[in-house]
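User: Predict the full complex structure for these chains.
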Amino acid sequence: MLAFLKSAATPADLSAMLLTLTGILALILGGTYAPGANAAIYLDNTLQAVLPLNQPVTREFKGRLGPVAIDVKNGAARIREYDSPRLIGTKTGWIKNSGQVAACVPCGLLIKIQGQGLHSGKNDFDAVAR
Amino acid sequence: MTPEISSLTNISPLRRRLLLGYLAAAAIVAHVLESALPGLGPFFKVGLANTFTLLAYFQLSLRAATAVSLIRVFAGSLFLGTFLSPTFFLSLSGALGAVAAIGAFGALPVRLGPVGLSLLAALSHMTAQVVMAWLLIIQHPGIFQLLPWLLLGSWAAGVLNGLIAKMILDHFQKLKPILEN
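Assistant: Here is the predicted structure of the two-chain assembly.
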């Protein structure tokens, strides 16, 4: 496969592949991974609700294509689309780190994890005593 | 910059139009068929229709590539019933972004082949779609945080489509004496 790629691609192609992949990985790995505190739900850029991640709940919102469910459980949130062409929001899965986003573009719905959670998992500290 | 594979320079106008039509038809079929298939992951779509845009660029011209791309978007949306829907505008913006990238990077004084151009077109395609999604549908800047993952999927799809285009172009080279006769 690599030999075929080397024969099929020019040196400029290989350079472009390497540079772009490096850039993309830098963008991905440069993101924050601190656990979040809340899931902010936006519909057509209007804030609909802020759901604390430490309170399990399922809420349904009316998107452009129909109802969309947002699940919150175990410090994470996810989208469950019922009718969307590629189900990108659903396939994104659970998100829990501050700054992470899941979206159903055709639905017009976006969830963003905000804040800094104290509880992130069993291996993290609960609090710092002074 | 000249394309790595020599284009059909001595082809008659009729054959040029026929080839453009065949490529456009193939792009439409690829576009419609792919929409019926289950996705391979949240951020990955092969986008095989873009391969035919590339073939049009390397065999004919940038103008032909633009025509194939636009015909595919319009006809594909009519087949799928998404004409003038948000999906249509996302598709259109992606197609225009890809063609713009092919035109811009293809004009650089470096020898980019089908793989490199396909990759850059795919990245441009995805970026244009996310910008359009932000403008039209989800006007929240948070959507740009999905972009790195979407670009990763586009990177893989761009390389794959470029390799497929290269294989087809190698076969086209064998047909060149017949087409130019």
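Residues 11-29 of chain A form the longest helix (19 residues).
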